[in-house]
Amino acid sequence: MAEWIGINKRARRCYGFDEIALVPGMTTINPAEVDTYFEIGGKKYRVPIIAAAMDGVVDVRFAIEMGRLGGLAVLNLDGIQTRYDKPDEILDEIAKADTKKATELVQGVYLEPIKEKLISKRIIEIKNKKSPAIVSCIPANAEKFGKIAQEAGVDIFIVQSTVTTARHLSREYKALDLAKFCKTMKMPVIIGNCVTYEVTLELLDTGCSGMLVGIGPGAACTTRGVLGIGVPQVSATVDAAAARDFYYKRTGKYIPIITDGGMRIGGEICKAFASGADAVMVGSAFAKAKEAPGRGYHWGMATSHVNLPRGTRIYVGTSGTLEEIVFGPAKTDDGSQNLMGALTTSMGCLGVKNIKEMHDVEIIIAPSIQTEGKIFQAVQRVGMGK
């Protein structure tokens, strides 16, 4: 697979969503009759498209509405919702900030200490409305926040960092023992992020209930520019899915993988499932919802880093309600609304009955898939030319 790029150095070719296409099979199925449910921790969820743990995307109100629609929205325990009693005031300030000063402002906002009482409060607020409470934090805070969240009745806990491995080395501080943490917690634990077969396989051995796949593909993330690391999401998902399948054959335990980031529209979400994802996690698509707390803005989770920001504030606008984005009816022509309609229609055209069958559809390398026959859309900046 690898090619020589110079003396004694080889590199393998990896692929992103714009470079592949899905090929229809021998049969087609009524989209209304396909099964989109995904399972994690013994529970099934109707919508396999998860809202990312970003402060411009998910707050308590958003999480409640997403739960009503049959999906999951992740609340960031390291963010504004747990630092401020009145987060709306801070969100207004960020939305109104000058573009040149936005990152500096965000850095200052996140210097406010996290209030542990707000962790319980936010989870309880979500649970009181009968919606699932899913939260996320960095490894350094996982043990402390995990206990608080567990007592508050959280449904799923996510331990998330830019790059996660099962063997983190440090002399400065004690690294989180992921296997011990997963064993201690009484709720499903999802960990991430990773992009390779070997690391995925080692992380699956920790006892986690799910894996996040993706480094740097998010619309507001600048990790790939700042650090120069990352793997395009199609290849990263294919490799992680291969590790999941090998682990299942070896142990009999099927642990879902979640492609995290890099998907703006329905077609890209469908390609992620075809690459092997059991669910996907998106940010910018949901940041456009009227219910999103970012007022049409969202920012990368590492934007607030005091020394080396690896994210930026971007404007995506507000295009419709969360229900319109998830289930339609779509009022846009670019695939950014009715994401579930796009998924079920794609599954019907591909002739697959469920998400696992989606993993077996034919994928072709098709660099012209975004441009072939689309000159008028590109020139007029409509549809796929936006």
TrEMBL record:
Gene Ontology biological-process annotations: GTP biosynthetic process
Superkingdom of origin organism: Bacteria
Any one GO molecular-function label of the UniProt entry: IMP dehydrogenase activity
Keywords (A to Z) from UniProt: NAD, Oxidoreductase
Database matches in Pfam families: IMPDH (PF00478)
Residue intervals of the IMP dehydrogenase/GMP reductase domain: 15-361
Gene3D superfamilies per UniProt: Aldolase class I
InterPro entries: Aldolase_TIM (IPR013785), IMP_DH (IPR005990), IMP_DH-rel2 (IPR005992), IMP_DH_GMPRt (IPR001093)
PANTHER family xref list: INOSINE-5'-MONOPHOSPHATE DEHYDROGENASE (PTHR11911:SF85), INOSINE-5-MONOPHOSPHATE DEHYDROGENASE RELATED (PTHR11911)
Protein family per UniProt: Belongs to the IMPDH/GMPR family.
Protein name: GuaB3 family IMP dehydrogenase-related protein
